[in-house]
Amino acid sequence: MTRVDFYVMSDADADTRAILVCKLAEKAFRHDKAVFIHSDDQALLEQLDEKLWQFRPDSFVPHRLLREDEVINQIDSDPVQLSCGEPANDRRVLINLANTVPTFFSRFERALEVVNQAENVRDAGRDRYRFYQQRGYPLHHHKM
To answer: Does the predicted model carry a pTM greater than 0.90?
Structure first.
């Protein structure tokens, strides 16, 4: 069963949220876990693509931003993938930044939900929390 971790931030800053996503992706990569960063906002994924190159000067997180139609044909060679679509191959860690729970989340060992205090992000995070809770998924909280 997928383990679900909620990382709850105390502020509403989008850049701080993006940096945390980069740190989580880096940590999973360093532990040899294939990561899929999912969002329903292509612009957010493009910002994360740039942020992964520069969030820390001494860090290197190999990644690829995929178009939604690219995911189906993508060979599973990139340690970190970012997409609005569904992953072609099973990966170990999902970082979900979408407003809803993706239909494919249960294919992952872990689903990470990064929630800040921006009203729309916080409210959507609460809805996702209820979704997982009602279905009996193991939930873990990390106050940031």
So the answer is: yes
